[in-house]
């Protein structure tokens, strides 16, 4: 048999085996028939996903249930109108007949409830309940369209369905509730994708970090580097945006499930990254106790029934028999056609009851972190971030040195960073510490309200003190360093709100200081004014340079002030106070929801007005994100959160709609942030190539030029008067600009030239042109002269060949004959060199243009005239005979390339 035939036979055999295997697998699937609410009957797989099913479950009696439950699953199948539930566990009750009640709640209303006797459903392990028999209950309950009519069809498709299933167990002898278990309901659609969204946002954040770092490390001029760094997107603002989204859930209100799921995508930026080993280790320190493999308190918690149970029925001792009956939930068995994968697990100890999302504990439950562990988890990840920053700076230094050594990059590439990398490392760590200030303050104050064990609270107090004193001390030191040569003046001023157009076409209202209007003599149409006080600093040192020209200050505190305008360099001091007060509302006001929500809303509105008036950022992208997008999002989120206060009792469907509105607002902000990060990466690339004459792609060259021009204008931070308005005919109305005060000046109207002795020689250049264009015989005659004819070195410096006079028309014609755009002229290179090199070559070769530039001129009108010397009569007489026998050739005229 040929090799090809053998291969075909082998391939056919493999396909046959695979077909048999698939057929066996298909035969293992079990099917049933079901009729839905519309009366349609179809064949259904028994392992299909239900329309609604439960997730994680917990004890809704606060740990006082007399059962230890390892499995509680419930589901609703819309295709055959059935409800199923599965219960596994154990109890230490000796002998008791039971009644059970199951209910389904969706969006705050009961959609289905049923009371039944487990004996009627053939749940023999509960009929009766006995401590020696493990509980294994499974039931299928048919329902009619009237019973489930309260569940709208949209509930099967809407993301993050808000509902729960509750199973309550009652003892017949005492008619007392002895068990309650609640599981969250879901439909498989959710906004919570931290494993996918988190890495994408992390990549964009890494791009922003690299772009910001590159603009700060590239260059040799500190002032110039600061200017480019100021227009890159602030990493501090990027992290503040993500943290503001997640910590919106710190308000003590009842959040809809859709919001909590959305916020879980941004938990990583606040240090809330779940790790099972980390959380399990912290639980013992934070005082979180319990068994993560089961829920309930059988045999470990004193039951509070008001004396309703008889001690003979309930054995409260921890007997080995009851403990041995408790086992972990069995793993999913793929060979069992009746097994399923949609089930939930017992909630982690310290979590809120499934199906409820109260305040920050509810937001933390979406990422699996108990509220008592939040501070320590955030602190550990902060230390990890500090280590990553240290490794990043060190790695960049090592990689650059290695690439320079093997000649992959130039020796001077990023030379300033490589020689000052220790300073960069220290400033990067300080910047990381500053970025984490809001997160640290919020979590430490929240830890104080949790009232956990002494250990975590003491650690929180130490971290709070170090962070607060450290940041406030650095800010105060930075401000004092700049303002020590002056004094402050507090005086009255007014904020004038006047009509203006935002983004050139949106009518709006813009504030401006009355003192600014008076200083620049501007007139506006005021709407209203607010009297305030203005604190100004008067510098007593007249030689003090601007804050953005002070290289020493930029090196020490540029990580705080570099991105702000020249007149708003101190804005970081105000913003630290703003972040601290906001953290106090979110973290410290958890026990007073009304004061927390209303106080934070008022504070955000006032802060928004202040930041608009100050307009602190030098870069337009930072202004768009931090001043407008982020501030508006904070105000809108806090304002809409008022509806979630328990005092209002808002319908949960309406609450979900409001939650969708908040998601849209925050989602638009995130999309805008990602766009700004990409634009910042492009502009940072332009900054890194600012020393190149060519830029690719070429269609961005004009944008690059405008970007640099705008950057230089913004760095001046001078008041720009508004552009003149256009009338209806499109003709601009000239603004009345006051005439500047007269200043001393002069202008050359005409120049009178006195006759010189050398004028008698005629126009030498004219003779040269004639010689150049003359007959060959004349050129041969000239060639037979002495060697000195080919050189002008023997001439006096003041008698070099040149025209007697130059008119403006001739000079323009001479310039027009030069090359339009010389690629790299020696003339330009010499003009850019130092004067010492030029003066040292005055008596050099006759073809050196330096001799022309440095030689003194006879006539001021000469294009190369320096006007420093005029030859005397003695000098001219001494060389009269030499001039008579030396006629310059065209070789003596230097060419300008």
TrEMBL record:
Domain ML-like: 50-192
Location of region: Disordered: 718-747, 759-897
Alphabetical list of InterPro entries matching this protein: TRP_C (IPR010308), TRP_Flc/Pkd2-like (IPR040241), TRP_N (IPR032800)
Membrane topology of this protein: Multi-pass membrane protein
Record carries keyword Lipid biosynthesis: no
Signal peptide as annotated in the record: 1-26
Family: Belongs to the transient receptor potential (TRP) ion channel family.
Entry protein name: ML-like domain-containing protein
């Amino acid at each position: 048999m040929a090799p090809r035939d053998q291969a075909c036979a082998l391939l056919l055999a493999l396909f046959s085996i695979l077909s048999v295997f698939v057929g066996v697998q298909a035969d293992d699937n079990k099917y049933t028939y079901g009729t839905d609410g519309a009366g349609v009957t179809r064949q259904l797989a028994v392992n299909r996903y239900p329309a609604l099913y439960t997730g994680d479950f917990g004890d809704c009696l606060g740990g006082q249930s007399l059962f230890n439950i390892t499995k509680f699953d419930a589901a609703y199948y819309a295709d055959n109108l059935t409800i199923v539930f599965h219960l596994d566990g154990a109890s230490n009750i000796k002998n008791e007949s039971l009644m059970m009640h199951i209910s389904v709640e969706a969006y705050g209303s009961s959609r289905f409830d049923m009371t039944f006797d487990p004996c009627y459903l053939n749940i023999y392990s509960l009929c009766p309940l006995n401590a020696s028999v493990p509980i294994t209950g499974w039931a299928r309950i048919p329902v009619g369209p009237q019973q489930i009519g309260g569940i709208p069809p949209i509930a099967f498709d809407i993301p993050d369905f808000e509902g729960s299933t509750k199973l309550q167990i009652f003892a017949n002898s005492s008619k007392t509730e002895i068990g309650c278990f609640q599981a969250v309901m879901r439909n498989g659609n959710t906004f919570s994708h931290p494993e996918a969204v988190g890495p994408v946002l992390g990549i964009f954040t890494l791009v922003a970090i690299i772009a910001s770092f590159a603009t700060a490390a590239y260059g040799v001029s500190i002032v110039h580097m600061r200017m480019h760094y100021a227009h890159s997107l602030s990493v501090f603002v990027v992290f503040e945006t993500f943290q503001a989204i997640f910590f919106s859930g710190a308000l003590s209100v009842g959040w809809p499930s859709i919001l909590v799921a959305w916020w879980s995508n941004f938990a990583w930026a606040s240090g809330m990254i779940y790790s099972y080993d980390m959380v399990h280790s912290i639980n013992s320190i934070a005082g979180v106790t319990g068994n993560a493999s089961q829920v309930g308190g059988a045999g470990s918690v004193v039951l509070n029934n008001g004396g309703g149970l008889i001690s003979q029925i309930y054995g409260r001792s921890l007997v080995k028999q009851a403990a041995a009956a408790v086992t972990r939930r069995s793993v999913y068995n793929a060979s069992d056609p009746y097994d399923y994968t949609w089930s939930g697990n017992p909630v982690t100890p310290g979590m809120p009851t499934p199906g409820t999302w109260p305040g920050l504990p509810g937001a933390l439950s979406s990422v699996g972190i108990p509220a008592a562990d939040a501070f320590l988890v955030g602190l550990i990840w902060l230390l990890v971030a500090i280590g990553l920053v240290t490794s990043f700076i060190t790695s960049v230094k090592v990689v650059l040195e290695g690439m320079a050594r093997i000649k992959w990059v130039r020796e001077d590439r990023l030379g300033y960073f490589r020689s000052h990398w220790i300073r960069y490392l220290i400033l990067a760590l300080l910047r990381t510490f500053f970025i984490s200030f809001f997160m640290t303050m919020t979590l430490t104050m929240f830890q104080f309200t949790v009232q956990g064990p002494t250990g975590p609270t003491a650690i929180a107090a130490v971290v709070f003190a170090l962070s607060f004193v450290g940041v406030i001390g650095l800010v105060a030191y930075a401000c004092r360093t700049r303002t020590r040569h002056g004094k402050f003046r507090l005086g009255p001023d007014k904020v004038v709100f006047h009509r203006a157009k935002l983004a050139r076409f949106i009518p709006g209202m813009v504030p401006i200081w009355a003192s600014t209007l008076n200083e620049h003599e501007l007139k506006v149409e005021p709407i209203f004014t607010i009297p305030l006080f203005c604190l100004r600093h008067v510098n007593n040192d007249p030689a003090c340079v601007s804050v953005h020209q002070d290289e020493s200050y930029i090196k020490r505190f540029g990580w705080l002030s570099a991105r702000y305008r020249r007149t708003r360099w101190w804005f970081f001091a105000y913003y630290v106070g703003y972040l601290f007060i906001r953290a106090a509302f979110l973290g410290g006001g958890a026990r007073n929801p009304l004061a927390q929500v209303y106080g934070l809303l008022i504070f955000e509105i006032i802060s928004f007005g202040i930041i608009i008036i100050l307009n602190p950022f030098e870069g337009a992208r930072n202004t768009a994100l931090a001043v407008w997008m982020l501030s508006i999002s904070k105000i809108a989120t806090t304002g809409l959160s008022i509806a979630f206060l328990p005092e209002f009792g808002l319908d949960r469907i309406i609450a979900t709609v409001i939650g969708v509105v908040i998601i849209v607002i925050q989602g638009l902000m995130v999309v805008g942030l990602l766009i700004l990060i990409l634009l910042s990466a492009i502009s940072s690339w332009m900054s890194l190539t600012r020393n190149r004459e060519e830029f690719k792609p070429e269609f961005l060259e004009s944008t690059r030029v405008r970007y640099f021009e705008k950057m230089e204008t913004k760095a001046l931070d001078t008041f720009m008067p508004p552009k003149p308005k256009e009338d209806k005919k499109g003709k601009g109305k000239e603004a009345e600009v006051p005439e500047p005060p007269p200043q001393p000046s002069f202008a050359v109207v005409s120049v009178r030239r006195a006759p010189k002795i050398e004028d008698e020689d005629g126009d030498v250049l004219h003779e040269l042109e004639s010689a150049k264009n003359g007959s060959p015989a004349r050129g041969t005659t000239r060639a037979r002269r002495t060697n000195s004819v080919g050189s002008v070195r023997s001439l006096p410096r003041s008698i070099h060949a040149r025209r007697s006079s130059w008119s403006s028309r001739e000079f323009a014609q001479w310039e027009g004959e030069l090359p339009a755009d010389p690629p790299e002229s020696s003339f330009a290179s010499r003009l850019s060199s130092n004067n010492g090199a030029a003066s040292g070559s005055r008596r050099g070769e006759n073809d050196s243009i330096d001799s022309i530039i440095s030689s003194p001129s006879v006539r001021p009108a000469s294009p190369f005239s320096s006007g420093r010397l005029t030859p005397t009569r003695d000098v001219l007489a001494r060389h009269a005979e030499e001039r008579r026998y030396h006629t310059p050739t065209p070789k003596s005229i230097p060419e300008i390339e």
